[in-house]
TrEMBL record, chains A, B:
<feature type="domain" description="PurM-like N-terminal">
    <location>
        <begin position="34"/>
        <end position="142"/>
    </location>
</feature>
<comment type="similarity">
    <text>Belongs to the HypE family.</text>
</comment>
<dbReference type="GO" id="GO:0051604">
    <property type="term" value="P:protein maturation"/>
</dbReference>
<dbReference type="Pfam" id="PF02769">
    <property type="entry name" value="AIRS_C"/>
</dbReference>
<dbReference type="InterPro" id="IPR011854">
    <property type="entry name" value="HypE"/>
</dbReference>
<dbReference type="InterPro" id="IPR036676">
    <property type="entry name" value="PurM-like_C_sf"/>
</dbReference>
<dbReference type="InterPro" id="IPR016188">
    <property type="entry name" value="PurM-like_N"/>
</dbReference>
<protein>
    <submittedName>
        <fullName>Hydrogenase expression/formation protein HypE</fullName>
    </submittedName>
</protein>
<dbReference type="InterPro" id="IPR036921">
    <property type="entry name" value="PurM-like_N_sf"/>
</dbReference>
<dbReference type="InterPro" id="IPR010918">
    <property type="entry name" value="PurM-like_C_dom"/>
</dbReference>
<dbReference type="Pfam" id="PF00586">
    <property type="entry name" value="AIRS"/>
</dbReference>
<feature type="domain" description="PurM-like C-terminal">
    <location>
        <begin position="156"/>
        <end position="299"/>
    </location>
</feature>
Length: 328, 328
């Protein structure tokens, strides 16, 4: 009898395979593999469960994370985050002050992003039947581009790939907390992406965007390559790098590309608009380190190649196993 | 330091007070106290976390329950359930077959109710950090009555109160499982309410509806009385009763009115349309035992009175404490 393992919650290959099996009973009516679903009337909707441990970390906490995480899944499809539902699963014995603190953090993030909380639910389960606090959010909003929905299916050979910031900030921050490493300056990139990404919707050559959460930039690259049958070539030298992430990754043997982000997106855009996209991104503090990192090509359909500084190409595979459980 | 207790997850008084404190940071932008929120464009949205134990019970299972529970919160506001999001929080070590079985059950319930699954999320947490499986659903749909939204604020003195079935079937069923009682014929009322309730939207005097989940019929009555400042008088003799519920309630000392339902609604309707409403309800198998159970009055504003067969009136208070954790 197969039992669930932590790798199946990692956001990588095993998660993908598990989700395929879970969706099988739903037959034809299964969601497409994008971050948010598009409904009639221009609405977008997305849902996410957040189980991060520790509940508070440099750069954010569970309350902030659950709002950003869901709102960002809308933002990357050109949907303005407007409404939020919030479901609480809390463990008996949790100090009420902790729960109230995370609600305060969620409320401030909603206010900042112009989101209204419209529905909620609260469950308390007996001690030992949940670990502290889980929050599940659903975000809703309306698309700003009803005529031209974003999605990986729009990618064309020659398109440029842009990363809005260094990979792995959230994952490295959680890892540093978990392993009690003191890494000066390292903090999660947990942030609302809509203010950064909204202006890109004015570009006619914008193809698709994805925030790189569980499984990191590597998982998004692999999903795009496999999902579209195109090849993606990434220049390792061009990837924005954060020294804190590099030191954590180095010490723990992680690939920064497989570490989660919570405020960093990968963007596919027509080559002639790549410079304009970078310019728009760099106007916002969150996009200060945005960089063109790769290209859509035709040579290795379905594969992601990483062009290394010494001139080789290594194939980047979908992350497998679980680097770090409960990252988000 | 206040710590969370199980009573705060009961759906009664303590839940209400906790939720008020949790919503405080959201300031003016807090949801109204109805089962589903109404958004621009005639959309309704609702969210719920499901933590029921055991995962499978007579009449249903977690997969069926999570679809019915969220869809019903739309149905009682005159919103046709159309779309569902589903967030999975599973414990490492759970047999994958269990998860797949509940997905199958959810998928069948969606197919039956015409709901499409549009978004999902899957988290696996380390062994011991969650108990088996929690599912969180958000349901979405469009109202069939954009001009006349349902809500307790519509209640007027003289209105009739109708209950679509006997109180407490779900709660009594879970209690019987938990205490290993063998009660022939007893099963949860877990069901999709839209087919039963949709026809009522043709009545111009339909005021409000609520499915009586955690906290049971008693919690809904008290919320309506307190939320509107009207008095509600219920005739104990007229309440539909289920022998299985009565025997469980009797043995364990529970009030059936405080036991959860998962397919039974309380309805407020203008007195001149009460008979028509009953006729419409009784056409559907789920409404075979529907009954007019009470009246909105003005004598005891904010209170619920239960008119007993021996001629007295006892005040029905919002349930407090926790009869039974993890009922839904």
């Amino acid at each position: 009898m197969e039992r669930l393992n932590l790798g199946q919650g990692s956001g990588g290959r095993e998660t993908q395979e598990l989700v395929r099996r879970l969706l099988a009973p739903f037959g034809d009516g299964t969601p497409e593999w994008e971050d948010c679903a598009l409904l009639p009337g221009g609405w977008g909707v997305t849902t996410d469960g957040f189980t991060v441990s520790p509940l508070t970390f440099p750069g954010g906490d569970l309350g902030k994370l659950c709002v950003c995480g869901s709102a960002n899944d809308l933002a990357v499809r050109g949907v303005r985050p407007e409404f939020l539902t919030l479901s609480v699963i809390a463990e008996e014995g949790l100090p009420e002050e902790v729960l109230v603190r995370h609600m305060g953090s969620a409320a401030r993030t909603c206010a900042l992003g112009g989101l209204a909380l419209v529905a909620g639910d609260t469950k308390v389960v007996p001690r030992g039947q949940a670990d502290g606090l889980f929050l599940v959010t659903t975000a809703l909003g309306r698309t700003v581009r009803p005529e031209a929905p974003l999605g990986m299916g729009n990618l064309r050979p020659g398109d440029a790939l842009i990363l809005t910031g260094p990979p792995g900030l959230h994952g490295a921050t959680i890892a540093a907390c978990r392993y009690e490493m003191d890494v000066p300056g390292l903090q999660s990139d947990c942030a609302l992406l809509w203010p950064l990404l909204e202006p890109l919707n004015g570009l006619s050559g914008l193809r698709c965007m994805r925030d790189c959460t569980r499984g990191g930039v590597a998982a998004v690259l692999c999903e795009w390559a496999e999902g579209t049958g195109t090849g993606l070539l990434v220049e390792e030298n061009s990837l924005p790098a954060d020294p804190g992430v590099l030191s954590v990754a180095d010490l723990l043997g992680f690939d920064p590309l497989a570490l989660a982000c919570e405020g960093t997106a990968l963007i596919g855009v027509a080559p002639e608009e790549a410079d304009r996209a970078l310019e728009l991104l760099r106007r916002h503090p969150l996009g200060a380190r945005a960089a063109r990192v790769g290209t859509v090509e035709t040579e290795h359909p379905g594969w992601v190649g990483l062009h290394t500084p010494i001139g080789g190409v290594r194939l980047l595979d979908m992350p497998t196993g679980e680097l770090l459980p409960r990252i988000c």
